[in-house]
Amino acid sequence: QALFGALEELGRVRESLAVSQGAIEMSREHGLPLTEIRARNNLAAWLGSYEPRRSLEVLGPAFELAERLGHREWVAKLGFRAWVAFEAGDWDLAAAIVGDQLRDDLPLISWLPLVATEAVLGAWRHDPRQPTGGIDRLRERTTAGATAQDWSAVHWTECHVALAAGQLQDARRSAQALQAAGQAIGDIANPSWMAGIVASWQGDEAGVREALAVLEPVPAVFRSIPGMRAHLGGVRAAMAGRRGEAASHFVEAADAFRRAGSAWCLAMCLADAATYLGADDPIGRGSLEEVRVLATGWVASVLLERIDWLIGRGRPRRDRASVVRAEVADPLLEPSER
Question: Is the pLDDT of residue 148 over 90?
Answer without folding.
Answer: no
